[in-house]
């Protein structure tokens, strides 16, 4: 629209960081930040909504569930500081999508190339389980964030709940797009939704999701997104 300055990701992140819409999540993220885990006692937890991270020109979106209480709720960067991130970032590096195999903290110089990471819910939920109302509340942030990533071609959903949230975002009926590891769904807007099991410790330690399986998913995501 003439005369209207388009929103920028930085502005979105600033506004997001102040979000207190979900009472239960605000209480939990702050309680975890006060009580801390023994190993992180000396640290100041982020304890706020976690912004997305990555390449603003990304063709590939990696879509998680919600921040880990002592992971990104502590560090302030998606998938950083917990077992999920210790699995995800090395895989992104092997795929040539990350400049380094480790994500330490915001400001560590890590860059993603062609990829961007965010999640369906941006505050750590108790028991890693957001409620339906919390998914719904956070979907407004998803809409704004994805609108600022115009080059996206492929969504990689980590787990069924992330898959469902992306379908909701597009107003699509779940029954027509069943979740399955490795499944590819052509969306009406021309993008592709690709599914993977979540990179959680629960999946990676039990062998449900191996590094080789995830490397294969990332290779397919890159091919669909026409990323070199
Ligand atoms: O940081 C994050 C974000 C989404 N899901 C996770 O497991 N961790």
Topology:
Blueprint: H1 9-17, H2 23-35, E1 53-54, E2 60-64, H3 72-75, H4 83-94, E3 115-119, H5 132-147, E4 154-158, H6 160-169, E5 184-186, E6 192-196, H7 201-205, H8 211-225
Parallel strand pairs: 2-3, 2-4, 4-6
Antiparallel strand pairs: 1-3, 5-6
Helix pairs in contact: 4-8
The structure holds uracil.
The site of uracil has 11 residues, from loops.
Descriptive tags:
228 residues, alpha/beta, Uracil-DNA Glycosylase, subunit E, 8 helices, 6 strands, globular, binds uracil, UdgB-like
Explain the overall architecture:
The protein is α/β, with parallel strands linked by helices and 228 residues long. The protein has one domain: Uracil-DNA Glycosylase, subunit E (3-Layer(aba) Sandwich), CATH 3.40.470. The chain is built from eight helices and six strands. The chain has helices spanning 9-17, 23-35, 72-75, 83-94, 132-147, 160-169, 201-205, 211-225; strands spanning 53-54, 60-64, 115-119, 154-158, 184-186, 192-196. A six-stranded mixed sheet has the order 1-3-2-4-6-5, with helices on both faces. The protein starts with 8 loop residues before the first helix and ends with a helix. The chain binds uracil (URA). Uracil (URA) is lined by residues 64-68, 71-72, 78-79, 84, 119. Keywords: 4Fe-4S, DNA damage, DNA repair, Hydrolase, Iron, Iron-sulfur, Metal-binding. InterPro entries: UDG_Type-4/5, UdgB-like, Uracil-DNA_glycosylase-like, Uracil-DNA_glycosylase-like_sf. It comes from Oceanithermus profundus (strain DSM 14977 / NBRC 100410 / VKM B-2274 / 506).
